[in-house]
Design goal:
Length: 269
Amino acid sequence: MNPSSTSPSQQKKAVLVTGAAKRLGREIALQFARQGWDIAVHYGRSEQEAAQTVQEIQDLGVKAQAFQADLANEASTKDLFLAASKAFPNLACLVNSASIFEYDRANSKTPLTGKSLQDHMQVNLTAPILLSQLMFEYQKNKTNKLEIIPAVIQLLDQKLINLNPDYLSYTLSKAALLSSVELLAMDFAPHLRVVGLAPGISLPSGDQTHDGFSKAHQMTPLGKSSTPADIEKAAVFLADSGAITGTTLYVDGGQHLLPSSRDVMFKTH
């Protein structure tokens, strides 16, 4: 078939994944690549890891390119989307995976500070909203519409419906992002879907030991929480599910069903 006669629905779709150099962002990017998507790999400071992720994706036979951006900077965030959408004109999904996760708690030796809250809000809330708005404008103005309505996937956290006071700045920033899922879905329809994806404890955090993580991972009704494979498969499912918008999928082994007064990582030391 002549490439010029390929319909939009037959063209290879692309996804921009923020924080795709490491951890869950990397696993999500690789799973999209396994399903035939081209990948725009965003990274902040992890240039070497981003290059490795790009190479692994290219080895799967799809296109990949790395884009550096400081998500704490509004201009840099906007430049990221412009560069990614130019390099991948068939952009059909945005996964906002990048986040900062630093400890504070109001009643502790490390209470919330204005700077801590602002830092978390900038990266965990403002940047995803800015990128989502840019994705909406991009899709609204496209003449070649895709068969499945494109999506923004906001990475959230099961603790948002199982609250505890640990990681206060992080929790507040993610709670605001959770609220944005419904608001943006209403505003961006019918051009763009917005969905939340809330993992349970999927990878070790901070100074958590392997043994501590293993114990924490089993503290769910199903006897295990989410794995990176569970999260990456759910992300691709949401991207391919054209009737899902304005809702959040909790993929956590039922972890949110067990109330806890502490973050689970503190119960396993």
